[in-house]
C-alpha cells in the first residue's frame, strides 16, 4: 500500500519518448495516454523554440505529436493560466491537459474561484 510521503518512480514504456524525455518520460506518456483515450481534447504543452530560453506554448491534439514537448524547459517563463484565460477563452468548451508549475496551479485555482 502506498502511504503519504512515499516516493514512487515512473517512466514511459515508449522507447521513443524515453529518448526525448528528461526524467523517464512519465508525464509525457500520461499526456499521450490522455489524448489517445479521449480523456482530454487537447494538451497545452511547451516546446523549445530558438534556444533554451524560448518557450513556445503549443496546443497538441494528435497523440503522435506529444513527443515534441518532451523534456523540461526550466528557463522559459510563461504564465500558463493567462494563456488559457486570454487565448483559449478559459477553456470552458474543452477538456485541456496542462502540466503546470506551482504558481500556475495557484493562478488556475484563483480563476476557478472567480468562474473565469
Commentary on this structure:
A three-stranded mixed β-sheet has the order 2-1-3, covered by helices on one side. A hairpin with a 6-residue loop joins strand 1 (42-48) and strand 2. The model has no long low-confidence stretch (mean pLDDT 85). The protein has one domain (15-113). The longest helix is centred in the C-terminal third of the chain and has 12 residues, at 102-113. 32% of the residues lie in helices and 14% in strands. The chain is an alpha+beta fold and 116 residues long.
At a glance:
Helix content is 32%, strand content 14%.
Question: Topology as H/E string?
Answer: HHEEHEH
In the sheet with the most strands, the strands line up as 2-1-3
Beta-strand percentage range: 5-15%
Structural class: alpha+beta
- Low-pLDDT runs: none
What is the mean pLDDT? Answer: 85
Helix tally equals: 4
What's the gyration radius in Å?
A: 15 Å
